[in-house]
Amino acid sequence: MKIAFHNFLTTLRRYKTSSLLNIVGLTMAFTAFYVILVQVRWEMTFNRAIPEAERIYLVAPLSPFDETGYSICSTRPDGEQLIARSPEIEAGGCIRPWRWEQPVWVKRHGEFLRFRMSLNPVSMGFLETVGLRTVEGDLAALGQPNSIALSRSQAARLGVHAGDILWLGDQEGKRVDTQQEVVALFEDFPVNSSFAHIVAVTDVGDRDMTPSYWNDCYFVRLRAGADPEVLARRWEQIHRKNYRDYMERMAPIWGEELTEEEMEDPCDCLLVPLDGIYFDRRVADSMGVFSSGSTTLTYSLLSVAVLVILIALINFVNFFFALLPVRLRAVNILKVFGAPNASLRFSFLFEALGFVLIAQLCAWYVAIALKGTEFASYVSSSLALGDNLPVLGISLGVSLVAALVAGSFPAWYITSFNPAMAAKGSFVGSAAGRRFRVALLGVQFVIAIGLIVFSISSLLQQRYVRRYDLGFNHERVLTFRTASQRISSADRFAAFASALEQDPQIVGVTAGQGPLVAGNFSIWGRKVADEEVMIHVRPVRSNFLDVLGIPVLAGEDFKPGYDRDTTLHYIVNDLLARKGAGLGYRLDDGNVVGICPDFHFRPLQYPVAPFAFVTIPGDMEYFFVRMAAGADSDAVCDHIRRTVERLDPDCEPVEIRFMDEEINAQYARERRITTIVGLFTVLAVVIALMGVFGIVLFETQHRRREVAIRKVMGATSQEVLRLFNRRYVTLVTVCFILAAPVGYWIVDRWLGAFAYHVPIHWWVFAAAFAVVLLVTVATVTFCSWRTANENPADCVKSE
Q: How many Å apart are CA 452 and CA 686, to the nearest integer?
């Protein structure tokens, strides 16, 4: 061990440049591996921190609102009867997961302070199912009237404890008398879980016990060995009976005679495991309540991490071979003096492990340094080493195994030659050795070209998404939300808009019940021309289309009086009109008065769907403010905040942002993935070039005599440089031919996730080929310049 350690230190001292490049390459690779593995672990362990998550299932019937998948929601009678009739269910209950914020008042030092808080009604069975842990008070008391339970973090934010009183809601910006006692505090749900957004819960009680309300998510915890398929079929039987009973009761009220087909609703059902719901694409989460991931993206990230490690380890082998000529004599001298091969090989393996451990420590230091940088925002989880101990263990284990695998062959190779044969240098020109080194370098080139193609295509798609014409004017539009009834009510909106428009930099103010562009905001299932149509609906103020620049193709725009009219008025998109809901069509309690173009109200992952604007006299909490060209956005934001505070002094400060930012947030996940892949693509190319450096260093050491002879025979330095470059140009070309089809397949699958995407451009492949070729030629030229310009006499003397 002492000798091996001495040899390792000698290697570091004698071959400083090679050792430094080796350590830098491994450090970059291990850093990339750690960062990506942190993100992959966050996604792969989603929901698994919930106690016994592997036995908890979501009851997911076929969606009545989206025929492409199963719904996260079901009716209460079906869910409650399933739990009551199933001995296989250990616990079960429902949650109404919609994230609607409302005002909440807290009394401090004799004064009332107003906050905003989302509140989720749940059944007591749900709390038992997910194993919610009580921190203070008693969760069982939640079943009492006017009771509420808060998460630990939410209680700290409000400054309350168990036994304190909250006042929920307001009227005209004033506290109402509805009191809720905080009966318990519970431990926050894990951040990488479907329930991370739940900060306050109340008992849902017996509300909405009717088959017509699909508002509740039912989760059940099964006993060990229970078959989820049996429970799913039982739910289907219960649902069919409940639906038929409901239709028989309602037929006389509706005054209709229903057919046998209308009396039946053969709804399919799935039980989706909680620890797999994050990646399950069968479940249609119409409101975007639960976070979802993509196995394709996650495994793509993991593949990038493995590929970067592979490139770095190939460099390790190449660097090792590059040093063979200068190290072989020492090895053979030791063999002549009786050193066994096993001892020599252990020394080289120890050296490999030493390099790996130094690089691993450097990588951990870099990860710590990245923790507080902008780069850390692209990773969903913390980069702190203490928060990722399993990742540290995996990273260390992979690096050690990789070092043994990568170091074993060079260690065996350098000790396998006869001392006399090695002294002649006959192994250097071995065809098998050259093929092996070229194959390793070829793998690096294939990986680098493939990653460049994918990275450029991803960047092009992101640019395409940002620049795509959505069908309305979202430039220079600010958005903010406030629940103040002094501002959001129909009676007060005109005064608020007028106050804002006193600033000449504001040219329009409107409002709606939510953001215009969202995954799925509100969906109504309606029958249009004997076809069941899922209509995406946005309640808005009457001037909404004018402010957002959405033209009316036929009919008329909303009139100002519609904001207070209890009769509903609709403007539908052209797609819904073509399905039969044209001008004058009766839709619920109102008529279609206009038709607008098929604009994009969802991210470009989704195709255009039937859509309708509707005016209602209710509150509109989401505001849109259009600025004039050249307006000072900071000054406009200050004016908005001052106006809100003047009209409602108790209102919380509003958070204002550009609508463009809001739209781009829909692609945050893809943007993070693209950025990470792009950065590590550059890293992979840099590491691959280190491999080229190692191979060229190897060749220039052993072709010095050949170069000297060629120069004596009249060859110029330029001809020598072309000689060195010719092989690498051919190698890059062959690797490109191999990498192009693979890159095309990967990019095609990536873009397939978007309903609207860029074409796969031929020039992307040409650019990847050109970048790798040019950089490779530059590297080879730089490394071989000295040998090409060396005096032949000096070469002969040294030889």
A: 12
User: Would you tell me how many other CB atoms lie within 10 Å of the CB of residue 585?
Assistant: 18
Helix axes 668-702, 295-322, angle to 10 degrees: 20
Q: CA dihedral in degrees (226, 230, 231, 235; nearest 10)?
A: -170
Percent of the chain with pLDDT over 90: 25
- Regarding whether 20 and 59 lie in a shared domain, the answer is no
The tally of domains found in the chain comes to 4
Residues 5 and 81 in one domain: no
State both tokens at 54: 């592997």
287/667 Cα distance (integer angstroms): 16
| Buried b / exposed e along 745-765 (16+ C-beta atoms within 10 A) | ebbeebbeebebbbebeeebb
Residue range 667-679, pLDDT digits in tens? 776 777 777 777 7
Residue 433 lies in a domain: no
In this structure, are 460 and 492 located in the same domain?
no
User: 456-495, pLDDT tens digit by residue?
Assistant: 888 888 888 778 888 888 889 999 988 666 777 777 888 8
- Tens digit of pLDDT for each residue in 400-446? 887 787 777 777 776 666 655 444 444 444 555 667 777 777 888 88
Domain assignment present for 519? yes
Measure Cα distances from 264 to 246, 261, 375 in Å.
Answer: 11, 5, 55
* Domain interval for residue 13: 1-46+295-428
216 in the same domain as 67: yes
762 membership: H or E segment, kind and range: helix 762-788
Considering the domain architecture, whether residues 584 and 497 belong to the same structural domain is answered as yes
Percent of the chain at pLDDT exceeding 70: 80
Residues 386 and 458 placed together within one structural domain of the fold: no
